Amino acid sequence: MKKLEIGNFLVRDIVFGEKTAYEGGILTVNREEATKAINPLGKLKNIELHIVHPGDSVRICPVKGAVEPRFRPDGRALFPGYTGPVTSCGEGTLHAMKGIAVLVCGRYSSMGDGILDMSGPGADYSYHSTTTNLVIFAERTNEKELDYTLREEDEFRISAHYMAEYLGKTLAGREPDRWECYDLDEGSQQAQEKKLPRVGYVMTVISQLAKGINDLFLGRDCNNMMPLLVHPQEILDGFLLGGMGLAGQALTTYDAQNHPMIKRLCQEHGKTIDFAGVILSPADVSDSMKLRNAISATQIAECLKLDGAFVQEWGGGSNVDVDTFYLLSHLEDKGIKTVGIMDEHIGKVYTDPKADAIVSVGETSTIIELPPMDKVIGDDESLVRDYYYGAWSTHTTLGPSLRPDHSVIINTYALACGGNPAAQLKRAVKEY
């Protein structure tokens, strides 16, 4: 029997103080101790910690990752295989800090990094403008390959996960404000008795990049993985970790921990559907591998005897669009009804008439102007110096993305989580 109980603590604020502790809804952080906890191997330097709140006149760029602080009372690593030994997950008791997030940023952008504004028009595009954030700024001690558009920068990613684990330990011995309980075994009998439709959730994962940049499962890089069947509760419990970057279509560890669609499907299990599981299907760069993955993922869906499937594009852009539509097409060919979940990015790279039910989670091709902020965490010069999706050093009509007064003009793809396929959004879609 696999039961996951998440005890939620409603955090009202984060402050710096002499001792890292949680009391009365306030998380106090000792800067020096926290800095040591996130940098055990000394691979980062010039580390700064900042606290930002919704509505602050703050711009964070380049943002590289987001994680929710949590704690396991039984002592297991919060992120098995990454911050500690490989163990099972998706069961037992977990404590979570709600309303806050750990963000990490640097001085130099790597392809896929994003921009987060805590106020102004840019704030409307990112869920993390609504959370109180502990922001890590750091530089690598061995900074290299700065002329590359895409770099392996796991020092940043793991620092955010270490911080989430460090902060979560302050919850030891405390009673949560409320509980979430997930137990698919409990609803399975009702689902069978009612003969409810069997539904699966298929997710593309970023695996096509160099090792150290892709998404991780149980701490392992998704590079060269094959489609994988996963228990839904594992996704909510540290099994899947986001890859590098926080651009418009990127998904983070925070998104996996709080995945709205998977939570809702778990809630509907035994009531309106028979939720059969999650299939992780890797993206790839070669057309033959895209087809192999789509065929293999579809075979798993057939073994599960699915009647329908949601197909979510994790990450995105023209490359992963193809993987997503191959999945939709192959599942439909086997009689499995599909609904795609993805954002809109202008262009017709690959479409299929069988993919006739698509939910849009936003559009990431709009030019947007952002006013200057009173404070920048990171380096906004990176917008014209380094590589971003959706920013540029020069433009014949618009000029550079960073203006002399530090206002910004960019494509919305550059906004952190601006087109979040997990539907971790501030916006809603209306049909007219």
Question: What does this protein look like?
Answer:
With 432 residues, the chain is an alpha/beta fold. The chain has one domain (4-366). 20% of the residues lie in helices and 29% in strands. The protein contains 9 helices and 24 strands. The chain has helices at 31-37, 154-168, 184-194, 232-235, 253-257, 260-268, 287-303, 318-333, 382-385; strands at 4-10, 13-16, 21-23, 26-29, 44-52, 58-67, 70-71, 92-98, 100-105, 114-117, 132-140, 178-182, 198-205, 216-217, 220-221, 228-230, 240-241, 274-282, 308-312, 337-344, 358-363, 367-370, 375-378, 408-411. The strands form 6 sheets. Strands 5, 6, 9, 10, 11 and 23 form a 6-stranded mixed beta sheet that branches. A 6-stranded mixed beta sheet has the order 16-18-13-19-20-21, sandwiched between helices. A 4-stranded mixed beta sheet has the order 7-8-1-12. Helix 8 (318-333) links the parallel strand 19 and strand 20. Helix 7 crosses helix 8 (318-333). The longest helix is centred in the C-terminal third of the chain and has 17 residues, at 287-303. The chain is globular, with a radius of gyration of 21 Å. 53% of the residues are buried.
